[in-house]
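Give me the 3D structure for SAM-dependent methyltransferase.
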Amino acid sequence: MLVSSAPGLTGRPERTDGSARDWAEIQERMLVPLYEAVYERLEVGPQTRLLGVGCGAGLALLLAAARGAAVTGVDRDGRRLALARERLLPAPQWGARRSGYGQARLALGGPECAAAQCGSAFTVVTAFDPTLPAEWLVLALRSAAGLARRGAAVVLAGWGPPERCATAHVLRVAERLAGLAEPVRVSARDDLEERAHDAGLRLDGSGRVACPFAYPDMDSAVRGLVSTGLFDTAIEATDRPQVDKELAEALHRYRRPDGTVRMENVFRYVVARV
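Predicted structure for SAM-dependent methyltransferase (274 residues):
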């Protein structure tokens, strides 16, 4: 069932239909190695009740459901969530549905919107999207912790060190076109740990996962990166064609002789406990 979010708990702005579709069809799959590494470490399976915070178009939920987990996803972006519904809830009605993958529920908003659907406490909470605003993420994790079983795992994910993320170079296009005084920071060393601490969680480990961004052609690379929302401010300051043009120029160094585009990246994740 889709329900509205509570006032005051705001996340990223809602994307256009095209941008949401580009995220689902091009960009979201780049983080599959991260999802799988976390699920393997936490032994996600039929006994797992998982809450995905900022679940987007639902690919991470789909992978968890394929392992037998009962999954619930919440997101502020209605267009991305509609695509998650297509993947997880193919029936005409919104709400919970038992399928070959297990039970899935989706709610529009923050974790507080999942409370009415929560039959029993969650055993795993994930926040995989590295573009979620830090302040919103802390508030969301505090809310999610109230719905989780004591000792439940809470996973936060983000970019690895800038020197290990080729995409950090490309993000300079965003800061230059937007005229930002401060650079677009991919990540700082203890960002994830600080957010977990601020949310009242206790740390219980971390890991790194290689997540290369690989695209079949330049057009897909540009569309995929723009769909992340990291270039929104640059588009507002200039226009979409200008951003696309300069982004393609920055990506040229990562274009291979066969026309594909590949950037090597490392992502970090932190496991905390409620």
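The longest helix spans residues 134-145. Let me know if you want a second pass.
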